[in-house]
Amino acid sequence: MCRHIAYLGPPSPLGELLVRPAHGLYRQSWEPRRQRYGTVNADGFGVGWYADGDPVPARYRRAGPIWADLSFADLARVVRTGALLAAVRDATLSGADAEAAAAPYAAGPWLFSHNGAVKGWPGSLGRLASLLPANELLSLEARNDSALVWALVLHRLRDGDEPGQALADTVLDVAAAAPGSRLNLLLTDGETVCATAWGDTLWYLAEPGRSRTVVASEPYDDDPGWREVPDRTVLAATRTDVLLTPLKEPPA
């Protein structure tokens, strides 16, 4: 379920990254090439981007399919950015949260997305949810598994964890509480991108000479530079470097 993408590089229109590529996120909403679970991502979409001089990203999110939103077509044509995170959504369960359930989620400089599903939701994460302060639980943007996973990641970030460590530890905790979950997480602050491959596809395209890195659920074109991230891996990237670190299975 779901497809997402993060970009760091020279300023570019949103449409050049999300719409124009032959197999970009826009097309992945109805015809993904490598999606293992679900077939159509039409239950919402969102894009978050950073403007020069402002560390807090802007977001545009809607509850319907990306191809039906004419306002997004205008935004994609004229808005330029050097960093973004975008996603199209295939909902695991129906709900009443509408666009609040669509990634990217945000707090301060951070944008976050979850591609996957938590097994046994919501009961499986009761213990982990109980570890969060009440004000953080009450601040959840939506009542779905992705929003709670984001709250767990954000709690670690606020406690001072490095982004990659916050993702890795959250994945291991959730995987231990809900075995069989798919937990591909994507996080950016506009300068770095961190991601996990845990149960679904993840790829990256690194072009150090252009100071450009793309991390995505699947390649948006047939450039031979795309590399698949092995399952059970955390990725940490800047505009010029990509580091892959294996993740261990949580104890049984």
Q: Give the overall pLDDT as a whole number.
A: 94
- Note the main sheet: 7 strands, antiparallel
Shape: globular
Number of strands: 13
Round the Cα radius of gyration to an integer and report it: 17 Å
CATH-assigned homologous superfamily: Aminohydrolase, N-terminal nucleophile (Ntn) domain
Rounded to the nearest angstrom, the distance between the terminal CA atoms is 26 Å
Model regions low in confidence, pLDDT < 50 over at least 5 residues: none
The helix-strand sequence is EHHEEHEEEHHHHEEEEEEE
Structure description:
The structure is a single chain. By secondary structure, the protein is an alpha+beta fold. It is built from 7 helices and 13 strands. The chain has helices spanning 14-18, 25-28, 70-78, 126-130, 134-138, 145-158, 163-177, and strands at 3-13, 45-49, 58-62, 80-88, 105-107, 110-117, 182-188, 193-197, 203-207, 212-216, 227-228, 233-237, 242-246. The strands form 2 sheets. It has a 7-stranded antiparallel β-sheet with strand order 3-2-4-1-10-9-11. A 6-stranded antiparallel β-sheet has the order 5-6-7-8-12-13, covered by helices on one side. It is globular.
Spell out the key features of this protein:
7 helices, Glutamine Phosphoribosylpyrophosphate, subunit 1, domain 1, single chain, alpha+beta, six-stranded antiparallel sheet, seven-stranded antiparallel sheet, 252 residues, 23% helix
